Structure formats: structure tokens, C-alpha cells
Amino acid sequence: MSDLLANLNAPQLQAVTLPPVHALILAGAGSGKTRVLTTRIAWLMSTNQVGPHGVLAVTFTNKASKEMTARLSALVPINTRGMWIGTFHGLCNRLLRAHYREAGLPQTFQILDSGDQLSMVKRLLKNLNIDDEKFPPRELCHFINANKEQGIRAAQAEAYDGYTQKRVELYAEYETQCNREGVVDFAELLLRCYELLNRNEPLCKHYQERFRYILVDEFQDTNRLQYSWLQLLAGGGAKVFAVGDDDQSIYGFRGAEVGNMRDFERDYAGQNVIRLEQNYRSHGNILAAANALIKNNRERLGKNLWTDAGDGEPIRAYEAYSDIDEARFIVDEIRELVRDGVSPTQMAILYRSNAQSRVLEHELFAKSVPYKVYGGLRFFERQEIKHALAYLRLLGNPDDDTAFLRVVNFPTRGIGARSLENLQASAHQMNSSLYNAAASLSGKAGQTVGAFIRLIESLRQETENLPLPEMVEHIIEKTGLGQHYRLEKEGQERLENLDELINAAATFVDAEGAIGEGGALVSFLTHASLEAGEHQAGEGDEAVQLMSVHAAKGLEFDVVFISGLEQGLFPHENSVNQGREGLEEERRLMKRKALAAEMPGREGLEEERRLMYVAVTRARQRLYVSCAQTRMLHGQTRYCVPSAFLDEIPANLLLKLNKKAAPAATSFGSGSYAAEPAAGGLRMGQTVEHAKFGIGVIVSTEGRGADARVQVNFGGSGMKWLALEYAKLTPV
Ligand code: ATP
Ligand code: MG
After folding, report:
1. How far apart are CA 188 and CA 151, in angstroms?
2. Does residue 12's CB lie within 6 angstroms of at least one atom of ligand 1?
3. Cα of 245 to ligand 2 centre, how many Å?
4. Rounded mean pLDDT of 209-232?
5. Atom 2, ligand 1: which residue's CA is nearest?
6. Residues carrying an active site annotation
7. Ligand 1 proximity of 226 Cβ (cutoff 6 Å)
8. Higher-pLDDT residue of 410, 592
9. 272 lines ligand 1 (CB under 6 A)
10. Are residues 429 and 511 in the same domain?
């Protein structure tokens, strides 16, 4: 016991050993929040204040929840298996699986990932003959998710104009379709679970009495619905222990609300707010850079971090000629560090956008440095894996139209687009799933689709009593998927991935047993949708870690490379725009128009800065920051300017590893780099707003005075040359 508390400082100890009260631990990066939360669970259990049964702990990623479980079993001798530790989505899924009937779901309900959701919306628009230019599917998904995250069903959604009215109707159609297919999207997992508890008093009471202690990590990134869900569960007297850092709130674009922290303090925590200010993770220079960066944000609860670890090394900065040069630099440094004895797993390359990983991967591969990518096109999102999973899903639930359409003609079975259109039309008319409607087809379509249905039926019989891995293998072979990729020229890697899927099934069964309602197949499919990417090949290998900054939240590494620090990339132009779109959507929902008018774009930029703060504070000993003058993105070479965030790091903390190339000789073309148009005080790298194209970043300038022109990268609206005299550009 004393061991348990031995390595805590005074405020940490106070937090861990608080009596049964609600509490908020508001503290900066690396100050031991996660450590405190885990130790508190261990302390509560080892002092017999609660059993494993009475604890509900929510963390942000599956990785974090696994780590928490592992740390717990190291701290207290208990069986952590079966404990309710997980992500919001994971825990809601678990609850819905246990009470699927009460929740109005089929036992084998499947989860739609964001790709599946998008294709479902596209299909819906097509069936209803709706112009997808007028109602872009992505926006519609966003609209639906934003509503669900506010706890608003289509029936309650308010329409303040004709356009929104139509969107609400489409939302309703989407709900009907999901119910018909027995599938739920990510936001639905939460909403459905919330509604179930809210409506079903005895059930809610059961869980309220069960969970005596509720602990939430990364509380700053909870959204309204998650907050209400927690409130419901805490309604029976449970004590909530929330830890978070407002400076690390990075999911505002998805509806997370830092305001939850203020509300929580007001409604629950009251006197029990504990601040931790000592950082145990990073050396002084790294921390100083992080503190200096985040000071530029206006919306903060305010706190300062210190460390007694000493200044450590300066932050190394490199300006590359191109993205390839940048990758070369990073990989060379890594090889040198490995030679010096640094473990590859203790090195991470972070990027703002997943698309950046390709060049880095290429270079790592070419130089034989083992690496592992988190996120991006993750294992379970690969085409061949999704095909195999779709067959498995159909075995579990024939009404799953998304799965049906994915594989009905894959590998090709001579089922044409026309036949499928007919099938979809009659399913629509009969108000049934495609699978059920198949019998209504006649002629050639009836034959080909009929053969497919028979294939699925016989697969179901053949695999009924097979263990999961053999079932997966059987499906891959008998559906023709294996053969298809064997014949494909570039199919080798896909075949290897399919083999890996069989391995994943075996590992899964070993780890989890045939647990869960609905048996191993359903649990495995759920695992595939919720835990995508965390069971890739080579787990446990000594590999350099590649991930987006979002995915790096809560983690720490000895050496961190932050790559692509360029205006428009980090801070990200789209995210500034998307962030705005998301926020505007939300404000509209919340009728906070006055506020919307007040703050154009700044919130998006502040969120980007928090993201940069998260990136910087991942590093323990050494931090690299780099940018490139040209970069290939989405098939185009872009000319870039260094990120404004680089300027926000005090120069005395930086060690520049190369001299800046002479501007005229580089990518900025026609030597115009120096020509800063005086008009309106605009300069390179500046973020500006244009009435028609939205928010953009100035990437080059040309001419002077009345001839001055600027090239602006408007993200979604593309690259534009604008004459300053005519184009009204307002600095953001
Ligand atoms: P983040 O905001 O990034 O999630 P955090 O506040 O959750 O960070 P932790 O991950 O819990 O911080 O801790 C950061 C590091 O500091 C960990 O390696 C942890 O073990 C270590 N640490 C925390 N408290 C102490 C302490 N009192 N003594 C020594 N090391 C500590
Ligand atoms: Mg943490």
C-alpha cells in the first residue's frame, strides 16, 4: 500500500486519497493526471472502499484503456478482467450488447465506421433521387452526427429554413434505414445507450447502484452527450473523478466542449479542484516552448507548468527543401539515435495529416528502419479486410445492406449495376433488406443474385461449428476472395493481410475467449470496428512509432519529431474551415448565433495551437521540429511557408540545423518571396478570409503597389491568384 503512494508529490497524493467526493483534477500535460487516476482506482480497491465491480473508468483510446488495466494489475493483486474500463464507445457498446432487446437492436447488431456511414448516406441519396451536389454526403453525415452528439433525434431536430428541413428529413430516412439494417454508427452507440438508460429506470438504477466510482481521463474532450451519459450514471450517488487539461482540448471540431469542465466544477466538484503543476515528463526547454506557444491562446483556464528536470537539450529545427528531404533528414537522425542506443519504440514521428505518412514510410522502408503506423489506412480499414469482414457480417446479420452491397459482386459474379438498382428499388418498396428482397428478382438478375444468397446460406451452415479463425479462413477461400487476390498482379500484400486477419482472429479468441453476447464472431466484428488499427502485424516489435498528433494524445516518447510545420498544414487550413463549419453547425443547433458572428476562425486556430501544444508535450528528452519548402499533397506540389507556430517558439530555445536556403533559388518562384505587398499589411504565411473562398493561407506574392498579387491556398476551394486591389482579403 505504502508502495502505491510512495512516488507521488503532495497534490497528487491529495488527489489519489480524496474521500468519496466528486473531484476535478485540472492540470497540464505530463503532470501525472493519468498516473493519479490509475493510482486512485488501485488505492480505492486496495483499501477495500470498492471492488473491481464498482468501478467505471473511461479513457480516450483503447490503447490507453489497455495500459490502465495493465498498470492496475501491477498495482493491486486483483483480476481486472471484466472490469468496466474502456472508451465511451467501447463501454456503450458493451451495455447495448448486454441489453440489446431493451435497446431495440438485433442481437448481432453491427457497427458502421465512418466510411460505412458515408456509403450508406450516398446510397440513401441515390435511392431518393436527391442531388448530392446540393446535399453533399459528407456534410450530411456531419449534420447527423452533430445532432446525435447533442442528443437530438430527427424527430426533435428543429428546421429554421427549407434547406435544413430537407436535411432533417434525410436524417429521419437515415435513422429508418439504420434500424432496418440493424446497424449503428459511432454516435448512435452513445445516443442509443443514453436513451436506454434514460428511459429504462430499473436498468439505469441497476447501473447507478453498481458503479460507486466513476473516473474519466481526458475530460476536456468529452462532448455534451457523453457528459449527460456520465451524469445519468452518477445519478445514484456515485462519485465522479474527472481529470483533464483545457489546453489539450483537440476535438472541438467534433463537438467536444471545454465548457464541460466549467460545468463539472460548478455542478459537482465544487471545493475539490486540484491543480498539478509539476511536469515529470519533459526537460525544461521543451516545457518552455510548450508554455510559450499556448500563451498565445486567449481562451484558457490558465496554469503554468514547471519541471526540476533541468533545461536539457535545445529544440532542433530543420527547414527542408522538400517533403522528401525532410523525411531523409528525420530517418537519418533516427538511425544515428539508434546507433547511440535509443530504442526505436521510444521515438515518434508526428504529423498533422495522415497523408504525410507515405513519404516517411517510404524513406523508413528504404533504409530498413522498422516502423509502425497508427491510424491512417488502418488494418481493419483496408479494402481486402473490409471485404472479408463484410462476408462475416452478412453471416451474422443478413439485413446489413452495407455489407451486402460491398460483396454481392465481389469477386465478380456477373451481377450488374442495373440488377442492383432493381433490387434496391424493390427492397425500398417492400421496406425490407436487400437480402430479403433478393427473392423478388426474376430473370438473369434473379439467378445471379439468387446464387449469391445460396452461397451465403451454405457458408452459414458450413461455418456454424467452426472456431473463429477457421471460420475466417473458410470464408476467405469459399467466397473466392483468396483466389481473386492470388490472380491479381499486386495482390500479394492483400493476401498477406488476409492471412493476418486469420491471425488476428486467433489472437482475439486467445485473449478474449468466446466472450460477449452473440459469441466470438460478433465480438470479433465489434473489435474490428472499434479497435481498428491496434492489432497490426508486428506488435511488440522494436519499431519507430508513426502517428497523427491526435492519436498521440496521452502518450510520451524520449524523442519526438513534429513534421510538416507549414502554414496550411499545421495549422491546418481545412481544419480551420472544418472546425468552423462544425462549430457553426453546433451554434446553429444551440441558437448561439450572436457568438458565431463574433469569432470568425480564431477558435479553429486556437484548437490547432492546442494540438501543437499536445505534440510538443509528448517529448521527454529531445524534440525536433521540421518543415519543408515544397510538399506533394493530394497529387499536387505545394509551395509552403513555415508554420506560424515555429515563430511562437522563443528563438533562444531553438537550434537551427541548417541555413535557410536563399529564397530566390527555391520554390517560391520568380524571386517574389521578398515582395511583401504593403496593402492591408498582408504577408506570406498569413491566414486570410475571402468572402467567397473562405479561409486561406497566403503562399506567395508577386508585384508591388497596384500590381500586387497574392497566391492563396484556400484548401477545399483550391489555390487562387488574387489581385490585392480587387480581392477583399481580411486577415484572420
Ligand atoms: P497528459 O496530459 O499528456 O495525458 P498526464 O498528466 O496524464 O499527461 P502522466 O502520463 O500521468 O501525465 O505522467 C507523465 C509522466 O510523468 C509519466 O511517465 C509518469 O509516470 C511520470 N510521473 C507522474 N508523476 C510522477 C511522480 N510523482 N514522480 C515521478 N514520475 C511521475
Ligand atoms: Mg494522461
Report:
1. 9
2. yes
3. 9
4. 94
5. 29
6. 33-34, 217-218, 248, 618
7. no
8. 410
9. no
10. yes
Q: Answer yes or no: are the C-beta atoms of 583 and 596 closer than 8 Å.
A: yes
**Does position 70 have pLDDT exceeding 50, yes or no?**
yes
Residue nearest to atom 14 of ligand 1 (CA): 30
- Residue that terminates a domain, selected from 473, 499, 531: 531
- pLDDT at residue 419 tops 70: yes
Q: Which helix (H) or strand (E) holds 230?
A: helix 224-233
Q: Give me ligand 2 centre to Cα 67, in Å.
A: 11
CATH assignment at residue 475: 1.10.486.10
Q: Which of 208, 191, 210, 223 is nearest to 103 (CA)?
A: 191
pTM, two decimals, is 0.76
State if residue 346 touches ligand 1 by the CB under 6 angstroms criterion: no
Helix (H) or strand (E) holding 612: helix 602-616
Note whether 252 and 348 are same-domain residues.
no
Domain boundary among 278, 307, 340: 278
Atom of ligand 1 nearest to the CA of 28: 2
Residues with Cβ within 8 Å of 74's Cβ and at least 6 positions away in sequence, in order, are: none
For the chain, the average pLDDT equals 84
pLDDT at 663: 40
Q: Is 703 in the same domain as 554?
A: no
Grid coordinates standing for 676? 511583401
Name the closest-CA residue to atom 9, ligand 1. Answer: 32
Taking only the tens place, the pLDDT of each residue in 119-155 is: 899 989 988 999 988 999 989 999 999 999 989 999 9
DSSP string, 149-197: HTT--TTT---SSHHHHHHHHHHHHHHHHHHHHTEEEHHHHHHHHHHHH
245 lines ligand 1 (CB under 6 A): yes
Q: Whose CA is nearest to atom 27 of ligand 1?
A: 8
- Does pLDDT of 669 surpass 70? no
Host domain of residue 170: 110-181
